[in-house]
Amino acid sequence: KKYIYDFSEGSADMRTLLGGKGANLAQMWKIGLPVPPGFIITTEACHKYWEEKDFISSIWSDVEAAVARVEELAGKKFGSSQNPLLVSVRSGAPVSMPGMMDTILNLGLNDDTVAALAKSAGDERFAYDSYRRFIQMFSDVVLEVDLDKFEERLAQARENAGVKEDYKIPAEELKKLVVDYKKIVEEAGHTFPSDPWVQLRLAIDAVFRSWNTPRAITYRKINNIPAEYGTAVNIVTMVFGNLGDDCGTGVCFTRSPSNGENKLFGEYLINAQGEDVVAGIRTPVPIASLEAAMPEVYKEFHRIAKLLETHYRDAQDIEFTVERGKLYILQTRNGKRTASAAVRIAMDMLHEGLIDAETAVSRVAPEQVEQLLHPQIDPKAKRNVIVKGLPASPGAAVGRVVFDADEAAERGGKGEAVILVRPETTPDDIHGLFAAQGVLTSHGGMTSHAAVVARGLGKPCVSGAESVKIDLAGGTFTVGGVTVKKDDFLTLDGTNGDVILGKMELIEPQFDENFRELLEDADKISNLQVWANADTPEDARRARSFGAKGIGLCRTEHMFMAAERLPVMQEMVVSTTTEERVAQLKKLEVMQEEDFLGIFEAMEGLPVTVRLLDPPLHEFLPKIPELTKALEGLAPESAEAKKINATIARARELHEQNPMLGFRGCRLGMIFPEIYEMQARAIFNAACKLTKKGVRVIPDIMIPLVGTQEEMKRMRKLVDEIGAAVIKENGVALEYMVGTMIELPRAAMVADQLAEYAQFFSFGTNDLTQTTFGYSRDDAEGKFLGQYVEMGVFEENPFARLDRDGVGALMEIAVGKGRSVRPEIQLGICGEHGGNPSSIAFCNKLGLNYVSCSPFRVPVARLSAALAAL
Ligand code: ADP
Ligand code: MG
Ligand code: MG
Fold it and tell me: 469, 543, 584, 640: which could form a disulfide with 572 (CB 3.0–4.6 Å)?
């Protein structure tokens, strides 16, 4: 079995076997770039190393043969005291993986070879500088000796020589340093190996060993990198950037990694080796000044940079070294970049004809795109994080702490930046949420009131920061020994859940021409449309401007939560007779109609799916303790007290053990048909009025939580009867559909029966996940779901990424059964999964017509839908 490849034997497509670094070195060798000779020990060898005892011995003769071939090419000899070959030993996995072994430079040096190196270079200082670096790196990485001792001794050497920089330490001082370095190694219980072959073997061993260090394992876990990959070992002839002023080393991006500008972007150091550039000891100079310093080298580098970009058809991140005026390339890889750089580079390369539209679209990661839509904390700034909560709604918010919703509404309304901090929020706090920059709550999960409302509003929210202790009366909160007072500045990062003390600088979101064009290209590739969940005209407009092709979920309950409407709604809920209820519903109908007028108008020409009332009615009532408190001091016979008592009685009646599985969804419409009739009338009236004005309205009316054919049949009839009457009254032509959400396992299983009456299905995967697993989301996320993910029960929270095996299987059944009865049935998803890339890929596979997600996720979903289709 072949475990060793010379650079001349590999290529870029052998990444899995040779690792990313090795495959690219081989590729560059192949196309004739100045790469120092070397060879690669494969990732398969890494597996063998972990399987077989003393595996390295079994390939040792091959290593020797490979070194011999390198000696030939380099014209030097490994371990020679005349003309020694030195090498670097570098790890390299198939994907870039910090946490692996650090590179060792100058391997092969000992007391003999160093003298030879000094002689051949004509520079003693250089040789001993290389030697001391080697001992330091090798001891650190292979022998695991504490680095501090070396750094102390090095500082001593600088002091002795009276210089500030390492590269000014004279040869004599370096010689003493080397002697002392070896003593440090001995004190740590090792002997520094002087035989270059022993050095090489130990270094190779250390690279393989580093694949399973705790930090490497942790990194793999966080980034979903399979342990099967393994790492390769690259052994590369040393070239020296520290041989004088005609030498240097640097790194360079072929385009700006921060904004994508098509211009070399990099840094270098004269007379330096390897990691000096990133180590921060000396400040590197911008690549542009290389043009003046070494014009020939710069010209050559520029040529190679462009060549590599054309070759790989992507922006490159290149490492180079100049030895006595000769340029060497030591690494190239696709450069990491910010979201805005990714977009610009992709579109520029498309326009340059370097890549096609499919490739351009695939160059931007959907998750990255979210960065472009919310203000962001300056990534370069240091964060003083006092606590981490749940990342409930993305984006960054800065403002002064306020504990009261009314105060937030007042000060926010005047244009002041405030952050609302609450134990949790209720519908009563909406105005405060609306006026605040962001919200922090100590209780509640990803679907708590604060989280849902904040996401809808596009406001950053950190929820469930349980260790935050709020003293509402005192106007402070404490967490981990820090006390934050009202009016103190606070910064929230809703994208990762950071709560940061103080006022951070924010960077504005960008939705520029390039991004727009990229998303249009994405739409052309996709099979799925992207719709949005929007409850207000403002949301609808935002969704449309982000490219939504319809509204997949317009929740009507939020419309009743606004301050002036809630009392009417409460009156309706408290009503005990149908007449009373109808009287209140009449008032609500006027308001509902207005809501629909606004949304339908904003979505002119595009479908709007309106879901009839879904939550249990008691959610609209104040909590019983609050009501009891309001009774205090009232005369028991007063009208007000009577009213409160009636509300308490009704709240008790409506109380449910398990509201999620209780009297909600179409069950409300079945028992109180007047509620759904009112909503249907409001929808049809609004639609007819606009139709008369020449606005094209496409209403889809959606019945929630249907589980039986009888429910679907009756609700369809209810809507159709109202629809027929209103349309006739208005004398217009209006087309509409009536459909259902599929959010109960039974609904999926009897989807064929439902499809006889339902003209569309929309998968409500939030509830479908709850009911399939038998989890109440709010309880599960707070109590055990996090641990389940840590324990490996789930790879990811099934409320974030759709569970294909269970929930997905039900969806597949429903799709099949639905189409068997109604082949043209419209299929979509409106759960939060509709904005999750992996879940979108699954919906694409099922052949759904659209996914619907929150307006701010629309661009993410458009990209994901395209990627799913590629
Ligand atoms: P990393 O993956 O951390 O970048 P590398 O193996 O690429 O580690 O190397 C670290 C530094 O050493 C880089 O600056 C690289 O250019 C330099 N380097 C590696 N091998 C050689 C070599 N053979 N000659 C000169 N410099 C080298
Ligand atoms: Mg590197
Ligand atoms: Mg639901």
Answer: 584
Average pLDDT over residues 705-722: 98
Residue nearest to atom 5 of ligand 1 (CA): 103
Spell out the CATH class of 239-364. alpha beta
Kindly state the average pLDDT of the residues 6-33.
97
State pTM to two decimals: 0.79
pLDDT in tens, 778-829: 888 878 988 898 898 998 899 999 999 999 999 999 999 999 999 999 999 9
The domain limits of the chain are 4-237, 239-364, 392-507, 529-616+656-869, 617-655
Closest C-alpha residue for ligand 1 atom 15: 274
At 135, the pLDDT band (50, 70, 90 cuts) reads: very high
Architecture, CATH, for domain 529-616+656-869: Alpha-Beta Barrel (3.20)
> What separation in Å is there between the alpha carbon of 267 and the centre of ligand 1?
15
Give residue 319 CA to ligand 2 midpoint distance, Å: 6
CATH class of 4-237: alpha beta
Catalytic annotation on 449? yes
Q: Looking at the predicted structure, is the pLDDT value of residue 510 above 70?
A: no
The pLDDT tens digits for 552-598 are 999 998 788 777 888 899 999 988 888 999 999 999 999 999 999 99
Q: Which two tokens stand for residue 199?
A: 């050095």
Residue 20 known to bind ligand: no
* pLDDT tens, residue by residue, 471-497: 999 999 999 889 999 999 999 998 889
Residue type, 853: C
Any atom of ligand 1 within 6 Å of the Cβ of 71 = no
ipTM of the complex: 0.96
Measured distance CA(39)–CA(64) in Å, rounded? 11
Shortest-distance ligand to the CA of residue 242: 1
**Judging by beta carbons within 10 Å of its beta carbon (0-12, 13-18, 19+), is residue 645 exposed, middle or buried?**
middle
332 Cβ inside 6 Å of ligand 1: no
Q: Is 312 helix (H, G, I), strand (E, B) or coil?
A: helix
pLDDT score at 277? 67
> With 0-12 CB in 10 A as exposed, 13-18 as middle and 19+ as buried, what is 476?
middle
CA–CA distances in Å: residue 653 to residues 101, 550, 621, 662: 66, 39, 12, 13
Q: Which CATH architecture has domain 392-507?
A: 3-Layer(bba) Sandwich (3.50)
330, 332, 336, best to mutate for ligand 1 pocket (most atoms within 8 Å of CB): 330
Q: Which among 319, 318, 294 is positioned nearest to 306, based on CA atoms?
A: 318
- The residue with greater pLDDT, 95 or 601, is 601
How far, in Å, from the CA of 743 to the mean position of ligand 3? 6
Determine if ligand 1 sits within 6 Å of the CB of residue 818.
no
Q: How far, in Å, from the CA of 93 to the mean position of ligand 3?
A: 45
User: What residues have CB less than 8 Å from 820, skipping those under 6 apart?
Assistant: 752, 755
